[in-house]
From TrEMBL:
Residues 62-96 are annotated as: Disordered. PANTHER family: MANNOSYL-OLIGOSACCHARIDE 1,2-ALPHA-MANNOSIDASE IB (PTHR11742:SF40), MANNOSYL-OLIGOSACCHARIDE ALPHA-1,2-MANNOSIDASE-RELATED (PTHR11742). GO terms for cellular component: endoplasmic reticulum; extracellular exosome; Golgi membrane. The gene is man1a2. SUPFAM superfamilies: Seven-hairpin glycosidases (SSF48225). Involved in the maturation of Asn-linked oligosaccharides. Progressively trim alpha-1,2-linked mannose residues from Man(9)GlcNAc(2) to produce Man(5)GlcNAc(2). It is an enzyme of class 3 (hydrolase). The chain crosses the membrane at residues 16-36. Keywords: Calcium, Disulfide bond, Glycosidase, Hydrolase, Membrane, Metal-binding, Signal-anchor, Transmembrane, Transmembrane helix. This is alpha-1,2-Mannosidase. Pfam families: Glyco_hydro_47.
Amino acid sequence: MLVNSPQATLRLSEKFILLLILSAFITLCFGAFFFLPDNSKHKRFDLGLEDVLIPHIDAPKEGKHARGTQTAAPRPHAQGGGRQRRGAGRSRRQGETSVEIIQLRCFFWPNSLSTNSDFKNKSYELIHRLFLFRDFISSEIQWLLFVFQMMKHAWDSYRQYGWGHNELKPLAKKGHSTNIFGNSQLGASIVDALDTLYIMGLHEEFKDGQEWIDQNLDFSVNAEVSVFEVNIRFIGGLLAAYYLSGQEMFKQKAVQLAEKLLPAFNTPTGIPWAMVNLKSGVGRNWGWASAGSSILAEFGTLHMEFVHLTYLTGNPAYYQKVMHIRKLLAKMDRPNGLYPNYLNPRTGRWGQHHTSVGGLGDSFYEYLLKAWLMSDKTDTEARKTYDDAMEAIERHLIRKSNGGLTFIGEWKNGHLERKMGHLACFAGGMFALGADGSPDDKAGHYLQLGAEIAHTCHESYDRTVLKLGPEAFKFDSGLEAVAVRQNEKYYILRPEVIETYWYMWRFTHDPKYRQWGWEAAQAIDKYCRVSGGFSGVKDVYSSNPTYDDVQQSFFLAETLKYLYLLFSSDDLMPLESWVFNTEAHPLPVLHLANITLPGSEPAQL
Ligand code: DMJ
C-alpha cells in the first residue's frame, strides 16, 4: 500500500493536470469560436460583415439640384472625430461591441439574407443559446444581443399580426391605429422601423418592409393625418432609409408624401395646420388646442426633413416654408423670453402662455439645435435662437428640488408647475448635444445639466415598482420624481430617457449610462413583453400592471434603436456625420458652406 500510494498520487495529479490542460484548451476553443478575427481567411465572415458593417450606400451623391459641392450620406460606421474624442481611451470592449456582435451573428446566421425561414429560425435559436456561454461574452455584447432579440420579437409580432396596419395590438394580436394616422393603413410601424432594422443588420426584414412600401404605400387616400407625426415618422423614416440604403424608391415616396403635406401651409400666416387631409388638402387644428392654435412642437418640428427635401429635389418650396415659420417667430414678442406652446395660424397671435420642454414644446427646441448641427454648424441663426431659448428656459423652468434633483417644470401663465413629463427627459441628451458651441464657454455647464436631467429621469424610473418611468412626475409637497395622478402613472414604451442615456454615454463614456439603459431594457422585457409583441403598461407603481395593448411605432424607431446604439461602438452612426430627427431617424449632415440650396441665399443659413 505504502509503495503503491505515491504512484496513485502521481496518477491523480497527472489526471488533474490533464484536466487543466483540457479545460484550458476548451476555453481557448470557445475564445476562438466567439472572437474569431475578421480576416480574409474567414471568407464566410467577410461576406457577412461586408454586407452588414459596410452597407451599400451609393458613392457620394450630390443633391441633384443643390448648387455647389457635395454632401454624401456617410457610412453608418464612418469614423468620427470631434465629440467622440472626449471618450478616447475607453477599452476595446466598450468600443467594438457592434463589430463583435455582427461577427457572432454572421457566424451563427451566415446566410441571414436567406428566405428559408426554417433555417433562419434554427439560426436564431442559436443566438439564444449564446446566452449559455455568457461568461465568455462581454456584458455589452450580451446587452446588444438582448436588444437585438427584443427588436426581432417586436418586428416578427407586427409582421405576423399587424402587417400593413399602422401599429400592433400585441394582446389582441391584430392591427391598431390612432387618429394621427387618419385611420388609414399606412404601415407606420414598417416605415418607422426600417432604419433600426438596417442598423441592426436585419436585412431580410428590411427588404420585406421595403417591398411592402414599394407595392402598398399610397398617399392618395382620403385620410386626415397629423402633419407633424407624418413628417417625423414617415418623411423622416423614408429619408433615413434612402440615405442608408441608397434605394431611390424611399426618396420618391418621401417626396410624394411631402407634396401632400404642403397644402397644410395654406393659412393666413403660413403657420401650418396641425392636420391635413391627404386627398383634399383641407387642413384644420386640433379641437383641444387653445383658441384654435397650432402647436409649437408641431409646426416647429419640420425643419430637418424639409431642408433635406429641398436638397434632394431642388424644389425650394420646402425650404421656404420652414424658413418662413422661423422668420415669423423671430419677429414675435416672447413673454419672459419664452415661446408659448400655442400660436394661432389665422391671427399670428400666441394662445395661452404655457411653455414646456415636454409635450407641445419639446422638439421645437430640439430642431433649432439640430438645424445648426445638420448645416455643419453654418446655420448660426438657428444656434443663436436655441441659445437664447435655453437661457430663458433655464431661468424660468429649471429648478432643483428639496432632495437635490434638477427638474424642468412647466410654465403656465407666469406660474411654474413643479411637474416634469417623461417627454421632457429627452432634454438631458439635447443639453449634452448642444454643449459644444454654447456661448460664454458654458459647454461644461450644459454637459453637467444634461447629466443632472439624466439622473433625475433615472430616479423617476428607479422609484417605481416596475423600474419603468411614469408619464409625468412631481416635485411638490414632499414628492420627488413620482407620479401622483392615476392617469400619469403609465409607461407607453417611450424612448426619451434612454435617448438621453445614449447621448450622455457618447459624450462622457460614464458606464452608469449603459448600466441604466440595461436596467430599462430588462424592465421593458420583463413587464412589457407579451407573446404578441410589446405593450405599454398602465401603472408603473403596481406589481401587477394591466396592459394598454399597443405596440407604439416609436418603440421600434426610437426606444430599441437608442438601446442598441447605447451598447454599440461609437463609430456606429457617428454624431459628426448623422443628426437624428425627433423620431430617431438619422439624416446626414449637409455641408451647407459649400451648397446653395434652391430658394436660399448662403447668408441666410
Ligand atoms: C416620438 O414620436 C417623438 O420622439 C416625438 O418627438 C415625441 N414623442 C414620441 C415618443 O415618445
